[in-house]
Amino acid sequence: MTAYTPQQNGVAERKNRTIMNMVRSMISDKKIPKSFWPEAVNWIVHVLNRSPTLAVKSMTPEEAWSGIKPSVEHFRVFGCVSHVHIPDVKRTKLEDKSCSCVLLGVSKESKAYRLYDPISKRIVVSRDVKFEEDKCWDWDTSYEELIIVDLECGDHEGEAAISDSEGDNDAEEVEIVPSTAEAEEIVPSRNVNDINSSSSNEGRSRRRPVWMDDYDSGDNFSEEDAANMVLFALADPVHFEEAVKSERWKAAMDSEMKAIEKDNTWLLTDLPVGKKKIGVKWIYKTKLKENGEVDKHKARLVAKGYVQ
C-alpha cells in the first residue's frame, strides 16, 4: 500500500469507520467528555474481538487467534457509574467503604476493571466493583478543559497498590495511578500577547498556540527535574540491532528465549506450501520500582499478527 493513501486499504478504513461510529454513540449516550475517546476505542476493540464476525465462521476473532473461547461475563456498559471498594487499611471506620467512579473498560495488565475517579482525577484499577449500568456521571462542563487523559500504558511513577486485608485468599487489588489531570488540577489560561500595531488590528489579542503547551524552555528546571530528563534521554531501545549492543538487554533476551523454550511455546516445522510466514519483533521495557530506581530490564518476543 502506498504511503498516505488509506483508500487503498478499504477493509481497515471501513473497520475504523465502524469503531468511530461506536465511539460517538457511547460518548453521547453517557455524556462522557470527548477527552476519553481513546478509552472508548480500547473498549470497543475489546468487545469486537469477542463478537461474531463474517471473517471467521462459528467463532470470534479472539477464539480464532488464541484457540480459547472467550468469556463475556465481564462485559459492562461503558461510562456507567461504578462503586469501587476501599480496603480497610486505606480508610478509617467512619469513612466510606467505596468511592464512585466511571467505567472505562478493562485493564491490560491484570484481570480487573479500569475506572476513572472524577473527584480525585485518578485512574483506578480494581476487580471489586459494583455497577449501576443505567446511570451516568453528572459531568460538569468544565471537565472538557480540566481532564487530560494519560494515554501512556505500563509502569507509572508514584503508582500505589492497595490490597484488601479482609476476607479469604481472594483479596482484591486496587491500583491507583495519578493521571495528568491531577498534576494539572486547573489548566492555566493561554498566555495573551498584546499586539502593538498602528493598524486597524491594534488592541486585538493573540492566543498562544496549543502545541506550545507541550514545551518548556527549561529555565525553571530543578535538579530533580534534570535527573528525570536524563531518564527520558536513556529511553528503551526500539530495534534489535540497538539492543544487542548492550549486555543488559542481551541478558534480558536470553532470559526470554529460555522461558519460551521451557514452556514449549512453539514447535519448529516446515512452512506449508502457499502459506505466508509471520515475523516476530522484540519489545524492550525498563521496569522501575516505586521509588523510581531500575528494577529489571524486560524483553519480550512477540509475533507480528497484523501481517496476517
What do these coordinates show?
The protein is built from eight helices and eleven strands. It folds into two domains: 6-183, no CATH class; 233-307, no CATH class. A hairpin with a 6-residue loop joins strand 2 and strand 3. Helix content is 25%, strand content 22%. It has 308 residues and is α+β, with helices and mostly antiparallel strands. A seven-stranded antiparallel beta sheet has the order 5-1-2-3-4-7-6. Strands 8-9 form a two-stranded antiparallel sheet. Helix 1 packs across helix 2. The model is unreliable at 148-200 (pLDDT under 50).
Produce a short descriptive summary.
With 308 residues, the chain is an alpha+beta fold.
Task: Spell out the key features of this protein.
single chain; 11 strands; 22% strand; alpha+beta; 308 residues
- The count of helical stretches stands at 8
Outline: globular
Order of helices and strands: HHHEEEEEHEEHEEHHHEE
Report the mean per-residue pLDDT as an integer. 76
Q: How far apart are the termini? A: 15 Å
β content, as a range? 15-25%
Report the count of strand segments. 11
- Fraction of residues in helix: 25-40%
- SS content category: alpha+beta
* Widest sheet: strand ordering: 5-1-2-3-4-7-6
Q: Work out the radius of gyration.
A: 24 Å
Q: How many domains would you count in the coordinates?
A: 2
Unreliable stretches: 148-200
Biggest sheet details = 7 strands, antiparallel
